[in-house]
Design a protein that fits this description.
The chain has about 220 residues and is mainly α. Helix content is about 65%, strand content about 10%. The protein contains 8 helices and 7 strands; from the N terminus they run αββββααααααββαβ. The strands form 3 sheets. It has a 3-stranded antiparallel beta sheet with strand order 4-3-7. A two-stranded antiparallel sheet has the order 1-2. The longest helix is centred in the C-terminal third of the chain and has 31 residues.
Length: about 220
């Protein structure tokens, strides 16, 4: 129960940051709206492939990328989409097993719910020049990336007891019960899980830095 409460709290905070970030980015791009059509432009090139502003808008709205809340959201969104593009290149080089149909259908539905009701979805598709097939491909891309990362880096990463203790020590606000600090023995299962997530993410970020160093990127 305690672990579920922590995960629910984390989901709520991530949702708040996502809503605030989406709002900021769309406000920042309001000057690019002319009439009912959104103007487009190239914001980056990766190994000769262009990334457009509309692709960044779509990626943010559908939560295809994660944008930190403590940096400039526009440039961070472009950087995150560049990273996603690099991951897709690697996925195509070493493809995992294709996702099953039921998983694709579920992911398509999840992406559509990120936009809103059916009328919002149709308007979003029209304004950003998308098609139903492209949303399907984005869903497939999501699942293939996740499968590749799981295949390459595993779903969990081993962490030492020292790392677990360090996470517990560094994040006291995450380990409270009725306003009082939890003991390490009580908090250890959640601390171990979160330390593993952090270690895995650090490993993935280093891999992405290596990909960026080898890529031809223009912004």
């Amino acid at each position: 129960m305690i672990q579920k409460a922590y995960l629910k709290r984390g989901w709520f905070l991530r949702t708040l940051r996502y809503v605030a970030m989406v709002g900021f980015i769309f406000v920042a791009w309001v000057p690019l709206v002319q009439g009912q059509e959104l103007l487009d432009r190239v914001v980056a090139q990766v190994n000769g492939d262009s990334i457009t502003l509309s692709e960044v808008r779509v990626a943010v709205r559908l939560a295809l990328i994660e944008v930190p809340s403590d940096v400039d959201p526009v440039s961070a969104a472009v950087r995150a989409l560049i990273n996603r593009h690099l991951m897709v290149i690697e996925v195509d080089r070493f493809p995992p097993i294709e996702p099953e149909l039921y998983m694709l259908e579920r992911e398509v539905e999840r992406l559509r719910t990120m936009v809103g009701n059916s009328l919002d979805v149709e308007e979003f598709i029209r304004l950003n020049g998308l098609t139903g097939t492209e949303i399907y491909e984005l869903a497939r891309e999501n699942l293939r990336i996740q499968a590749y990362l799981n295949q390459r880096f595993g779903t969990t990463v081993y962490v030492t007891e020292e790392e677990v203790a360090q996470y517990y020590s560094d994040h006291p606000d995450e380990f409270q019960r009725d306003g009082e600090p939890m003991t390490f023995s009580d908090a250890a299962p959640v601390a171990r899980e979160r330390a593993s997530v952090v270690r895995r993410q650090i490993t993935i970020e280093q891999w992405l830095r290596d990909l960026r160093d080898r890529a031809d990127i223009k912004q």
